[in-house]
């Protein structure tokens, strides 16, 4: 097995991040630093990252209803609560598939499967990510239409999105909009709404591919079924 794939299968990082670890000299096989991505790993080899051995684990997949005020990370240097802290009984080294902002709630997958992670987050696979946003201002077809063509965010145009106006409250000057995107850039949904003159004051991800949050309250989680995992894989393949 190639070294980058081995690291991804061990649940340490996605294959893309594993490649960066290898290129930057963090990986050794039997005590020797390797920087060639094509290096093969045998069952008897001892693989270490920065001196810590890694092993292939059984693949696990969890669905979490992330509350606001929790970091989408494995650890936090400031000591803030992370999404991994919400699953204390899980022994495998899981990490979030993509991320939700500290103040964004909703659906988040956690796994130790690097290949699965890469499939889910790569824009080319066009996995639907559906958000429910409460925004300041009155949402109309006219001001939301640019989102369906793509808007400039951090110097790059977003892929076309789909929207549905759920509610408009003219007295309080705010609206609720459902937005479907296929990307996952930093603060992307908030910045997309800003581009059309609407400021997000509450945001939640309510669907990811075929998954939703039915039966899960904030902070609760459950294992994904084999059928759900297969459906996500198939969605990524069929959307290529």
TrEMBL record:
GO terms for biological process: enzyme-directed rRNA pseudouridine synthesis. PROSITE patterns: PSI_RSU, S4. It comes from the Bacteria. GO terms for molecular function: lyase activity; RNA binding; rRNA pseudouridine synthase activity. Pfam families: PseudoU_synth_2, S4. InterPro entries: PsdUridine_s_RsuA/RluB/E/F_cat, PsdUridine_synth_cat_dom_sf, PsdUridine_synth_RsuA/RluA, PsdUridine_synth_RsuA/RluB/E/F, PsdUridine_synth_RsuA/RluB_CS, RsuA_PseudoU_synthase, S4_RNA-bd, S4_RNA-bd_sf. It is an enzyme of class 5 (isomerase). Keywords: Isomerase, Lyase, RNA-binding. Residues 1-64 form the RNA-binding S4 domain. GO terms for cellular component: cytosol. Its EC number is 5.4.99.-. Transmembrane segments: none annotated. Belongs to the pseudouridine synthase RsuA family. PANTHER family: PSEUDOURIDINE SYNTHASE FAMILY PROTEIN-RELATED (PTHR47683), RNA-BINDING S4 DOMAIN-CONTAINING PROTEIN (PTHR47683:SF2). NCBIfam families: pseudouridine synthase. This is Pseudouridine synthase. It comes from Streptococcus hyointestinalis. The gene is rluB.
């Amino acid at each position: 097995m190639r070294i980058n794939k081995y690291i991804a299968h061990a649940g340490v990082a996605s294959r893309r991040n594993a490649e960066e670890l290898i290129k930057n000299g963090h990986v050794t096989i039997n005590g020797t630093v390797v920087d060639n991505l094509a290096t093969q790993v045998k069952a008897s080899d001892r693989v270490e990252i920065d001196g810590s051995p890694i092993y292939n684990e059984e693949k696990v997949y969890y669905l979490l209803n992330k509350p606001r005020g929790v970091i989408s990370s494995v650890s936090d240097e400031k000591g803030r609560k992370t999404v991994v802290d919400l699953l204390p009984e899980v022994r495998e080294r899981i990490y979030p598939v993509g991320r939700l902002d500290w103040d964004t709630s909703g659906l988040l997958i956690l796994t130790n499967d690097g290949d699965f992670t890469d499939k889910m987050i790569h824009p080319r696979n066009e996995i639907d990510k559906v958000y429910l946003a409460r925004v300041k201002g009155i949402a109309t077809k006219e001001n939301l239409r640019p989102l369906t063509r793509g808007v400039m965010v951090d110097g790059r145009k977003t892929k076309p999105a789909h929207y549905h106006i759920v509610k408009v409250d003219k007295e309080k000057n705010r609206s609720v909009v459902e937005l479907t995107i296929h990307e996952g850039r930093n603060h992307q949904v908030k910045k997309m709404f800003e581009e059309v003159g609407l400021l997000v004051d509450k945001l939640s991800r309510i669907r990811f591919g075929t998954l939703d949050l039915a039966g899960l309250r904030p902070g609760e989680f459950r294992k994904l079924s084999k059928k759900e995992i297969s459906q996500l894989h198939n969605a990524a393949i069929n959307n290529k």
